Amino acid sequence: MKTLIMVSHPNIEQSATEAFFKTSADFVDESTWYSLDHLYSKAKIDPDREQRFIQNFDRIIFQFPLYWYSSPASLKQYMDDVFTRKFIVATQSLKNKELGIVVTTGDALTDFQAGGSERYTMSEILRPFEAFANKAVMVYLKPFVVDQFNYKEVTDKQRLLVAYLQYLNAPMPLSLENREKWLLAQLKQSKLDTAPQQQQILDLVIGAIDDQQDQIDDLKMNIKLIRDQEE
Amino acid sequence: MKTLIMVSHPNIEQSATEAFFKTSADFVDESTWYSLDHLYSKAKIDPDREQRFIQNFDRIIFQFPLYWYSSPASLKQYMDDVFTRKFIVATQSLKNKELGIVVTTGDALTDFQAGGSERYTMSEILRPFEAFANKAVMVYLKPFVVDQFNYKEVTDKQRLLVAYLQYLNAPMPLSLENREKWLLAQLKQSKLDTAPQQQQILDLVIGAIDDQQDQIDDLKMNIKLIRDQEE
């Protein structure tokens, strides 16, 4: 799976959160980090070139800090410039691709609800992107929301790292089965880059997960047989 | 009432709808037409100057064609540049001012609902602006939505003209009483600019509306008396 991470952030160099994401994304071979603000700072962009480029990817991620309940202006500028009605609606050039949203906010996620200081849920606030995915016949992924990154403990950041890597290239939706498949693929990949003495340990881990998966499959089969007899 | 009409439209000169609005707004003495795309095409903007400027107005209107379920990028750029957290949240510099949205769309308004091609209502799509008004402690006015302007008949455009003028400077909410007050103010203003032979006709019209208002007030008083006796 090829993933494009379109980052909209006017001060990307100063952002600890984006640095964290960038370092994480570097672990994923088939992901491409694409800073829209850098793109616009260089020269006038070429919509035709951008349209050809974006079609190479299976999963497109809009990644940004929430600025006044939307993305910063650079993503909107890109959408206005590149996502012409012809490209999106007439030729349906992004049809069936996945659209993910990675959004960061300094406010606590619990403030995003009726009665909270932000009043509306993140689902409501991101509705324009969902409506866009709908119009483009894309698959809208559950948004990946990171609140108050700078207050997080190290263990929370580690969990966040794994969740982010999965958001970049695990099959969706993130069921237990899909998570496990993804984990096995990561371990097998790591094995190739590892010293021989550690490969044995990884083999044991991979074997253990495979065995567990076999057990789960057996148990599921048993449940199915029991249910079939009941009917 | 002083009204600022902030127009976000990358091709404002080619837009028949914006030309119509511009001509209409010229009738309203205390309204200021402000093209954000022109502003940005000239030079780097000065946030301090913009902040001082915008505070002169009582009603601020964001006016734009709906581009991918939001405003074009220039309004977002302006919000990102000028509406700093300090200006909006810490000093609450726009507190109690009114925020209006004038939004135009080529799709029929009936498509904006569950089951329609646009799926979401305009209220849902404009939620980020409502959330902004909430955060700025502004009064969010009912958005003024104009769909399929180019297909409208002349009489519909005339009705639209009056409704737009009211949206610019009538007291809100637009109750019958507020509409009538606004109409009387417009007629009295017109009288000053009119030839003497027509002033008599306007006087008759103004007198008739005043008489009707007196009758309505009497009837309301009667209803109140009857209700009071019932209790």
Low-pLDDT runs of 5+ residues of chain A are none
The CATH architecture of the largest domain in chain A can be given as 3-Layer(aba) Sandwich
What is the global morphology of chain A?
A: globular
Q: Give the CATH level 1 class of the largest domain in chain A.
A: Alpha Beta
Number of helices of chain A: 10
Question: Multimeric state of these chains?
Answer: homodimer
The pair of chains with the biggest contact is:
A-B, 27 and 27 residues
First-residue to last-residue Cα separation of chain A:
41 Å
What fraction of residues of chain A sit in β-strands? 5-15%
Arithmetic mean of pLDDT of chain A? 92
Keywords:
homodimer, 231 residues, alpha/beta, Rossmann fold, 2 domains, 6-stranded parallel beta sheet, globular
In words, what does this structure look like?
Two copies of one chain form a homodimer. Chain A is of the alpha/beta class and 231 residues long. Chain A has two domains: 3-174, Rossmann fold (3-Layer(aba) Sandwich); 175-231. Chain A is built from ten helices and six strands, in the order βαβααβααβααββααα. The radius of gyration of chain A is 21 Å and the shape is globular. The first copy, chain A, starts with a strand and ends with a helix. Chain A binds chain B through residues 10, 67-74, 76-77, 79-80, 83, 118-120, 124-125, 127-132, 134-135, and chain B through 10, 67-74, 76-77, 79-80, 83, 118-120, 124-125, 127-132, 134-135.
